[in-house]
Amino acid sequence: MHRTTASLALALALAVLATPLAADTLVVANKAEATVSLIDLGTGEVAATLSTGTGPHEVGVSPDGSLALVTNYGTREEPGSSLTLIDVGAAEVVRTLELPEGSRPHGVAWLDGRRAAVTCEGLGALLVVDTESGEVLARIETGQEVSHMVVVAADGGRAYVANIGSGTVSVLDLEGRALIKNVPTGEGAEGIDLAAGGEQLWVTNRAEDTVTVLDATTLEALAELPSANFPIRARAVGDRVLVTNARSGEIAVFDTGALAEVERFRVEVEAGETAGRLFGDEFGDSSVPIGVVVDAAGTRAWVAHAHADVVTEIDLASLETARHLRAGKEPDGMAWSPRDVGSE
């Protein structure tokens, strides 16, 4: 009797050990080759490469992590006008959603399991799209130039859009489908995220080498912080905000309480050839870090180096590089999903 129980216990233990551990997934848009890489974060390997429209720039993952929506921006010469919807677990393209011609979709944020908000530079507007039907449910004009990135408040009431050409943030009422206010921040306003439990709005002004911090409710300026070398993206995690600096290849770390830069580090990644990439040779030998995302636990960050075809994984406790991950050509926009590729 005891021997049988012991044998069953051993068999169960061996079965558990033989079962692959579930792994989360990093979805990476490769701008220069019109693909998305699904990286298995358990193994660090690309589990699947899927075709998208031309110039995929940003990725947003649905609240449950099952779907990824990719914005197909196109090129400078030929504006894109579509979105690619991907089933992460099945590692397959579900459908292509067509938008108005010349729309140049760029930033994306999911509102719920079906609807997503998408910035469209060519329209000067934010679109709310039904990802199942492909219908454009709302079009909210920003009245600004190059409406680029978007972040949505946790309650879904407001969207904040960074406008590179106008140097402003458009604050939009998603329920009323109207512009609340355009707030000047600085020349080249691009990166944007909500921090401090949604109370602060952080905006990187790439042409001025500054970061503006606004009160997300009153829209009053809380701070104007120096941030050298083309600050291009911002990502909040806990009481910190990570800012990628494309010109120097550095990541700056800001404290949301002190409203100050507290650390800056460079990830040593060797840049490759620059031909055919968005910024060309503008930043010399920089690896050109742009996209930055974090996991739900706030323990890891990933930074896409657009001129090195590498994504670095950062341990947020130590700010040390944990590993280098390979994606496709010119990785930029990314999203993290708790789903395992092959789980469906």
Number of folding domains? 1
What CATH calls the topology is Methylamine Dehydrogenase, Chain H
Strand order of the largest sheet: 3-2-1-28
Strand portion: over 45%
Low-confidence stretches: 1-21
Question: What is the assigned CATH homologous superfamily?
Answer: YVTN repeat-like/Quinoprotein amine dehydrogenase
The helicity comes to: under 10%
CATH architecture: 7 Propeller
Write the element-wise H/E pattern from the N-terminal end onward: HEEEEEEEEEEEEEEEEEEEEEEEEEEEE
Radius of gyration, in angstroms, nearest whole number: 20 Å
Q: Structural class from helices and strands?
A: mainly beta
Description:
With 344 residues, the chain is mainly beta. It has one domain (23-337): YVTN repeat-like/Quinoprotein amine dehydrogenase (Methylamine Dehydrogenase, Chain H). Helix content is 5%, strand content 53%. The chain has a four-stranded antiparallel β-sheet, with no helix packed on it. The longest helix has 17 residues, at 2-18.
Concise synopsis of the structure shown:
The chain has 344 residues and is mainly beta. It has one helix spanning 2-18, and strands spanning 25-30, 35-40, 45-51, 56-61, 67-74, 79-87, 92-98, 105-110, 115-120, 125-130, 136-141, 147-152, 158-163, 168-173, 178-184, 189-195, 200-205, 210-215, 221-226, 231-237, 240-245, 250-255, 260-266, 289-294, 300-305, 310-315, 320-326, 331-337. It contains one helix and 28 strands.
